[in-house]
Design a protein that fits this description.
The chain is α+β, with helices and mostly antiparallel strands. The protein is built from four helices and twelve strands. It comes from Asanoa siamensis.
Length: about 170
């Protein structure tokens, strides 16, 4: 079988956005008001000990609260939560009022209802990387929706749904 060749192009921000594929999360942090933002940069870093990471632009409206937070929550969104992703990606609005379905959880972090997975994490460190900061965090508590469901994905500059699931 012959592989289809990839035609290389110079990668700028717009091309990178179209090439990038990832799961969609909303990260929330305590504050007055609380902060939250949509991210596609969430990843696991280590299993022993458990460690995750996400990145955020230092010019983002959520950055001051996230940079000062000792704890954050990460919400892996379900395929039915595209509206939540869009709400927490919109600037200039009260994202929590627009969303409505949230409560204050452990360590004061805002917890969103309906997420596929929810992790409350202690911030373990921050690393400057380009115009973003990578936040490393240790999951303290976590859970997943009993109803299951498929994750919301981001690919080719838009939201997508996982069509197939292969078994191990």
């Amino acid at each position: 079988m012959t592989a289809t060749p990839v035609r290389p192009s110079t990668v700028d921000g717009e091309l990178f956005r179209r090439l990038h594929a990832a799961g969609v999360v909303v990260v929330t942090a305590p504050g007055d008001p609380p902060a939250g933002f949509t991210a596609t940069s969430f990843t696991s870093v280590s299993l022993d000990p458990p460690l995750v990471a996400f990145s955020l632009s230092r010019t983002a409206s959520a950055w001051p609260a996230v940079s000062a937070a000792d704890h954050v929550a990460v919400h892996v969104l379900s395929a039915r939560q595209e509206r939540v992703a869009r709400t927490f990606a919109t600037s200039g609005i009260d994202r929590f009022a627009a969303h409505g379905d949230w409560r204050t959880g452990p360590e004061g972090v805002p917890l969103l209802g309906g997420a596929l997975v929810q992790l409350v994490c202690r911030v373990a460190g921050q690393v400057t990387a380009g115009d973003h900061t990578i936040v490393l965090a240790t999951p303290l508590t976590g859970g997943y929706a009993e109803s299951g469901g498929r994750p919301l994905l981001y690919h080719q500059g838009g939201y997508a749904d996982l069509q197939h699931r292969w078994t191990q």
